[in-house]
Structures are given as C-alpha cells and as structure tokens.
Amino acid sequence: MTSVARVPCTIVTGFLGSGKTTLIRHVLANANGRRLAVIVNEFGDVGIDGEILKGCGDENCSEENIVELANGCLCCTVADEFVPALDAILARHPQVDHIVIETSGLALPKPLVQAFHWPAIKNRVTVDGVVAVVDGAALSEGQVSADLEALSAQRAADDALDHDDPIEEVFEDQIACADLIVLNKRDLLDTEGLERAMTTVTGALPRGIGVVTVAEGKVDATALLGLGIGAEDDIENRMTHHDSEADHDHDDFDTFVVPIAEVADPASIAQRIADLAGAHDVLRVKGFAAVAGKPMRLLIQAVGPRVNHYFDRPWGQAEDRQGKVVVIGLKGLDRDAVVKSLAG
C-alpha cells in the first residue's frame, strides 16, 4: 500500500505586535499557485487576525481555508480544537499543499510542536518549520515589545509581585523553538538600531539558525515555506524555560473585548488607545471601529503606544456598524478604567 505524503505545516510564532498576521497575509497574497490553508489561534472573542487574513487576494487561498480558533492556546486544546480544525482542512478537495498556523502572541510554541506526535495527527501532517517573528524596532530599544521598560521597573520595585518576567520568558521560548527568525520592521531602524536588534536576537539564540530582516512582513514565501525540518522529531534541541513544567498556563495575562461606539475620526480613537500604554498595563489592542460619515471599516492595531490604523473594507449592508477591540495586558490591569478610556 502506498503511503500518503504528510502535509507540511509551518508554525508562525512571535510576541504581541511583532507582525505575524501581516507576514502571513503577504505570503497568502503571493502564494503563486500554492494551495494554502491557515489556522489562526487567538485569545478573546473577536477574530481580528482571521478577518485581516480573509480576502487575501489569491484564488488559491479562499476564505474557507482560513480557520479561526479563539478558545485559548492550541497546545492546551489539541483534542477539542486543533484536531477538528486539521480534519476539516485535510478533507478539502483539491487538497491543500501547505498549512500555516499562526499562534497567539502569548503562546509557547514547543508544546504545539510536541502535539504533532498525537496519534490523530502524526501520520497526516508534519512541522515543516517554526518561524519566529520579532519586533526589530522594539528590540533596538532593548525591549521585546513597545514601552515595557517602566512597567518592568514597577514590577521589580513591588515586593508583592512576582519578579519573574513572563514577557521575557515567552519571547525567549519562542526564539528557542524557532528554525527561522524573521526580524520585522526593518524600515523603522537605522544602521545602529538594526545592529542592536540583531545583537539581541543572536544573543538569545541557543543554536545556529537563520535570521532574515524584512519590512512590513514582506518575506518571500519560498524562504518561509518548505524548510523541511520535521521539527516534531527534533524536539530535544529546543530547550525552553518551561521544559520542567508538566503543564503551562497564561495566568500572567488578561484579555477581554471592549465595544467601541462610532468615533468622530481615526485620530481620536488612536490617541485614546495610545494613552492606555502609559496609564495601564496594556500590551496590545487590535480590532475595528466605525467612523462617522465613512462607509469603510477602520482596522486598528496597537503595540504599546504605537497605533496603526487604516480603512480595510466597506461595512456590509446587513452588518452592524459596531466597533470592538481585543485588549491584552498583564494580569490585574484595571479593566474598568481601560473600558472607560476607550469609551472616550
């Protein structure tokens, strides 16, 4: 009996706001005939990343090939979420050539790689490679994400808080499990900034792997897909902070959804979101808003005080012009104050 070739899967990991979704959208839009499918893993009830990826512009990547899972970490929900998602994708005809898995920014990739040994999975798919996307602009400033220096100092000064930095550990674990590092936001760096960012990345690498620098997530799909690593069979070379833990959780972080009333202009909501980074323990904000007098939906993505926004598509005729964003921050942030701030 002839064995069926396993479908390769690329796991794209990276800290909050590093540019994972932008990178994957670029790959989808430049699939060049390759039939791709995407599994998007998000925290919270708003499928923002899936919405951004849909309508990628390539006929070989239809919207039905983008599966959103928003009930927590994939590696924690293998049986309930991940296996059914793979079943649905692998049943498609014609068969997909490659599956891209976008992890949550809070996820540890190693347990997900280990999940590829599950009996329901291992004979049908393989981990082609793990790609870690890092924020070059933040790294050049000595941080893994935007404007966390003051927050770290506050945590270190408070004896009531755990002094271990979960953000640094997540970043280092993502690097440790990667087969390729994509240093994103090259366009925001001068020569010295790029050198600082590269020094941080290479200093965190526990083994020799490639690092590529890109702007706006524009990496050639041929460089990203087809690494042929079989990472699930190379797990012993991926040493992380959490190897001694039987289980892991995300109790260091809070995530919740905030409805956004129609705004007068994009600048007003962008300023309110930027102010959150300085006033509260907010790491990431992403979502949509309706702008008065505008038929287009406003897409919002923020990392710390850096807020990007643009009109991405018209609101549907039967669609409620209700904005909402997902807020991700450190455990214990003042939700009521965040909601009040976003409400204007």
From TrEMBL:
Belongs to the SIMIBI class G3E GTPase family. ZNG1 subfamily. This is Cobalamin biosynthesis protein CobW. InterPro entries: CobW, CobW-likC_sf, CobW-like_C, CobW/HypB/UreG_nucleotide-bd, P-loop_NTPase, Zinc-reg_GTPase_activator. GO terms for cellular component: cytoplasm. SUPFAM superfamilies: Hypothetical protein YjiA, C-terminal domain (SSF90002), P-loop containing nucleoside triphosphate hydrolases (SSF52540). Zinc chaperone that directly transfers zinc cofactor to target proteins, thereby activating them. Zinc is transferred from the CXCC motif in the GTPase domain to the zinc binding site in target proteins in a process requiring GTP hydrolysis. Pfam families: cobW (PF02492), CobW_C (PF07683). It comes from Methyloceanibacter methanicus.
